[in-house]
Design a protein that fits this description.
Keywords: Coiled coil. InterPro entries: Sos7, Sos7_CC. With 234 residues, this protein is mainly α. Helix content is 91%, strand content 0%. It has 2 domains: 104 residues; 64 residues. Helix 1 packs parallel to helix 3 and helix 2 runs antiparallel to helix 3.
Length: 234
């Protein structure tokens, strides 16, 4: 149980740390930069104190209810030993109803406590982020200039990447258009070939001549004539 609580505390601290870093970076690179005043920090501290007080009150309520349940159990045991049967039944039923009511109330408290703890964690993260962002506005001049130079270098690198993409865009567009035109030609050729194949199949089924056989016979006769002429000349 202790190990689980310790692990949970470490995970929650890591989460708060990451959220704080993210908010800090967003605050200093934003346009305009986020400037946190003293009044906002005071307001957050007030909210945090209120939530802590509410959580403490809830835990105290749980403790008191547990003590009351233990007292009720002891009273029921004493009354069971010292009273008559009918009186004991009445007291037992009444005590059982009280315990059942208290158990119902207790079942809703863990969720409330969990919500309060989550709210406290969020407020602490926000307060830490605001404190870091506020401290960044009060850096010494050398540290401020170094931070500004670092952000300007990052911005310049992003601008170079953007310029490279913009320069390559026209060439990529032309290549895409050429490929699209070539694809259109291939699609038309495919459509024409399919149409011709269907027409040839239809003529074949209907017994019509598609002209290919006549063309083949003409080529064969021309070939024989050429061979004959070549043979005569030789």
């Amino acid at each position: 149980m202790f190990a689980a609580k310790e692990l949970f505390s470490k995970l929650r601290f890591s989460y708060v740390e990451q959220v704080t870093k993210e908010k800090f970076l967003r605050a200093i690179v934003g346009d305009p930069p986020l400037v946190v005043g003293h009044n906002e920090n005071v307001e957050l501290e007030t909210q945090l104190a209120e939530v802590k007080a509410e959580l403490k009150a809830s835990k105290e309520e749980v403790r008191m209810m547990i003590e009351e349940m233990e007292k009720t159990g002891r009273d029921l045991a004493n009354q069971h030993r010292g009273k008559a049967r009918y009186t004991d039944d009445y007291v037992t039923t009444t005590g059982y109803n009280n315990v059942e009511l208290q158990m119902t109330q207790l079942s809703t408290l863990p969720e409330s406590i969990e919500n309060l703890e989550s709210t406290i964690a969020e407020l602490r993260a926000k307060q830490a982020s605001d404190s870091v962002a506020s401290s960044s506005q009060n850096l010494p001049l050398p540290a401020t200039l170094s931070l500004v130079a670092e952000r300007e270098a990052e911005l310049a690198a992003l601008n170079r990447q953007l310029a490279a993409v913009q320069n390559a865009l026209p060439r990529k567009t032309r290549e895409a258009e050429a490929m699209e035109r070539e694809l259109g030609v291939l699609e038309r050729r495919k459509s024409e070939a399919i149409t011709q194949a269907k027409e040839a199949e239809r003529k074949k089924q209907e017994g019509e001549s598609d002209g290919l056989e006549e063309t083949g016979r003409w080529y064969r006769s021309a070939e024989e004539a050429l061979k004959h002429l070549v043979g005569v000349e030789g």
